[in-house]
Amino acid sequence: MNGVFQVDNLSKAFGGLTVSRDISITMKEGARLALIGPNGAGKTTFVNLVTGQLRPDSGTILLGGENVTRLGSVRRVRKGLVRTFQVTRLFSDMTPEEHVTLTVLQREGRASRILSRFFNDSAVAGEVESLLDALGLLEVARRKVGEIAYGQQRLLEIAIALALKPRVLLLDEPAAGVPQSETPRIEQALERLPPSLAVLMIEHDMDLVFRFARHVVVLAAGEIIFEGLPAEVAANSKVREAYLGSYANARQHA
Ligand SMILES: Nc1ncnc2c1ncn2[C@@H]1O[C@H](COP(=O)(O)OP(=O)(O)OP(=O)(O)O)[C@@H](O)[C@H]1O
User: Fold this and answer.
1) pLDDT digits (tens, 9 = 90+) for 104-142
2) Regarding the domain with residue range 5-253, which homologous superfamily does it belong to in the CATH classification?
3) Where are the domains of the chain?
4) Which stretch is the leader sequence (predicted)?
5) pLDDT digits (tens, 9 = 90+) for 140-167
6) Which residue of 35, 121, 151, 173 has the smallest Cβ count within 10 Å?
7) 90 in Cβ contact with 45 (< 8 Å)
8) Residue nearest to atom 30 of ligand 1 (CA)
9) CA-CA distance, 194 to 200, in Å (whole number)?
């Protein structure tokens, strides 16, 4: 059976440097896939290719069976392929409530009207409240983003992505830059993502990867070198050599 998201033989080179070589991935509804690999393996490039920020040299991207390979990024988002970024792209003077309200209104094509009217729109307000609640952000809903913790800013990015009603969510290092003390918040939020949503996560924090993922794909030098269950990936010698060695050793000696 085809998945909700299917990538076939995606390839991309920058000059002489191949950064994606024949990458194929299938995700079904409810998938929890982690894409891991050393720095420069091509993980972010892969996300840029599938979301339309970069054009592949060859390969196909299917969303719900529809070929979206030639669509621009905005149309892919409208069709339910949504990403977050490694580094936050938020407005420090706006509140989480304002960010998510704007996103819901944008999705509905209502963002260009006078915003203040919509803060009284009960349907929009209800949706915004439940999104912020799901990400544990209600208590800071009306604080300026520049004043809230970095982990909460990262969670707000996920709330914004969810406000776009994705079918497939691509998370680029959701815990990057987040202090250790705040990672449990990120973990809890990831556990509470809608069960039917297909989620692909790039992440270097292996504890988070192994708690979140039900399937792991390992990239090295633009190629998939292994994929399987988290336990299989951790035990694979090729993967340990390319990437996990230091992590596995640290765990052994911890
Ligand atoms: N626009 C570009 N032009 C040329 N080379 C690029 C471009 N974007 C990325 N690269 C190169 O492609 C390779 C893959 O980079 P990419 O950022 O996808 O890796 P990554 O696995 O996401 O790394 P990290 O874990 O450090 O974020 C790197 O060698 C990078 O220097």
Assistant:
1) 877 777 665 555 555 666 777 888 899 999 999 999 998
2) P-loop containing nucleotide triphosphate hydrolases (3.40.50.300)
3) 5-253
4) none
5) 998 888 889 999 999 999 998 998 899 9
6) 121
7) no
8) 40
9) 13
From first CA to last CA, the distance across the chain in angstroms is 42
Separation between Cα atoms, residue 70 and residue 83, nearest integer Å: 18
Looking from the CA of residue 37, the nearest atom of ligand 1 is 21
Contact 187, 208 (CB under 8 A): yes
Looking at the CA of residue 41, tell me the nearest atom of ligand 1. Answer: 21
Two structure tokens written together for 40? 């420069």
Tally Cβ neighbours within 10 Å of residue 214.
Answer: 12
State whether ipTM is beyond 0.95: no
If you count them, how many residues does the chain have?
A: 254
pTM of the entire predicted model: 0.85
Residues with CB under 6 A from ligand 1: 14, 19, 37, 39-45
